[in-house]
Amino acid sequence: MITLSSSVQASPDMLTADVEGETVMMDAESGYYYNLDPIGSRIWHALAEPTRVDALCDRLAEDFDAPIEVIRKDVLALLESLVERKLLLVEGD
User: Cys staple from 87: which of 13, 27, 29, 82, with CB 3.0 to 4.6 Å?
Assistant: First the structure.
């Protein structure tokens, strides 16, 4: 389970391409394709290097001038989804 103190990083095994503001990803091992909307794409690119979830949420809350509680809930949900699909590396909690 991912928490705010977890450190996450995009899997280096994913093949990605940016298409019209969205990120299209392919898991070469499974052959599955995934698509991230512009906000999901922004999060994915922020995960090129290991990043603490709380720091990511803080940056997004500032950039989008949104309530931190909403950002945290949405980011944690996206990250859990990516972990389920084995698209993220997680360290910590």
Answer: 82
Domains, in order of start, for the chain? 7-87 (3.90.930)
Q: What are the tens digits of pLDDT across the range 41-59?
A: 999 999 999 999 999 999 9
The string of DSSP letters for the chain reads: ---TT-EEEE-TTEEEEEETTEEEEEETTT--EEEE-HHHHHHHHHTTS-EEHHHHHHHHHHHHT--HHHHHHHHHHHHHHHHHTT-EEEE--
